[in-house]
Amino acid sequence: MIKSFMMDKYYFIMTYGCQMNIHESEKLAGILEETGYLPAQSVADADIIVLNTCCIRETAEQKIIGHIGSLKKLKKNKPALKIILCGCMTQQNGKGLEIKEKFPFVDYILGTHNIGDLRSLLSGGAGGVFVEDTDGYINDDLPVTRTSMPNAWVNIIYGCNNFCTYCIVPYVRGRERSRTMDSVKAEVERLVKEGYKEITLLGQNVNSYGHDLNDGTTFAKLLNLLADIPGKFRLRFMTSHPKDFTDDVIDAIASHDKICKHIHLPVQSGATAILKAMNRKYSREDYLALVAKIKDRIPSVGITTDIMVGFNGESERDFEDTLDLVEKCRFSGAFCFIYSKRKGTAGYNMTNIVQYEVKKERIKRLLALQNKITREENKKYIGNVFEILVEDINDRFENTYCGRTDCGRLVNFKSDADIRNKFVKVRVTRGATATLWGEVTEVE
Ligand code: SAH
Ligand code: SF4
Ligand code: F3S
Question: Is the pTM of this model over 0.70?
């Protein structure tokens, strides 16, 4: 450990975007703590502020730009403050220099393949823009300061090869790079020994895990290997791409109690023509058949999804196909987005754009439908007892804790004792739109 001789110094990390970024922030925190920095309680107390950014939609970028602007005053009052920008936004073509010009008070701008450079910067390297244009390498030897007990995030594959025409991720995260099964297994074994009770495997497309290794490694083999690790823990994973969700993965989920019966399976659209324009490589019928097969093999499964409205060329008829697919699949939850065009993607140059007013009206209809389905599906849980891993306190209510069922539903329940990090049995008593409520019947 490199410990420098200095007064206590504090860091604050602001994380935007997906679970990948949440986990990457744990790696940034690991590097900062290794160098002697301590976590600050607020931005104002920090000597180093890191913004770990996202650029999946324009709204995400606008929010971050606003936050960078608001740091100017802080930097003026405290010139020794170091401001670091990293994550997906900085990796976009030319964006690093553009940000540095607009916000000269930002000290370091690091691309997604440059996280490791943080170490040299902390040991006194000069400020500037460090954005490497490479397909990326694997950073699985970085120290990690985990913040999500009882859950631990574990990367299994970095990058993406799919180039969906709306999506910026392949451009900012590089090509697919899988970790070896041995390396993932060793990390999971260590985490289980350290007391983590839920392991969430991360990848933009976990189903293509192993393909790049060319040694017969597959996601199903990895799941089987990890589920055989002794100890009481749960395995989750995200995200699954429908195009290569193979039968052996369904079999692995069905046959191991440790693998949660929750699949996040983004559909994006219910119209084959739009899926084709999006380069998703499956049709409406393929998706419906896959959902039917999964539900047949794993009756207790919870399937959630991502849906986008207003992609280029989406007609009213196409959108109605999406509503119809939502009715048919009865997702237990859906993240719904308005399509936002991203510079550098194939979608950016398409001319058949959908007007913003139309997009807004469509997302309203979609949300109303999914909320109705979520409420109806929630009713089916009432009266049943589920095993739940208690994840946190729900501080909006007195003596209330929350956690998820095996199939991914969030449940709130009361307890006088602190039951965090324990497995409990909960009888569901009522359902609100987003969450269920229940009473604890048994504590491990
Ligand atoms: N790798 C995952 C998704 C990562 S991005 C997958 O393939 O499913 C998370 C979600 O953001 C996507 O599923 C999509 O619904 C949404 N999204 C991606 N690009 C978008 C864009 N340009 N505008 C609006 N939503 C977008
Ligand atoms: Fe983006 Fe598609 Fe890759 Fe997911 S699979 S990260 S949506 S390009
Ligand atoms: Fe995630 Fe946003 Fe990057 S969704 S991969 S942090 S663009």
Answer: yes
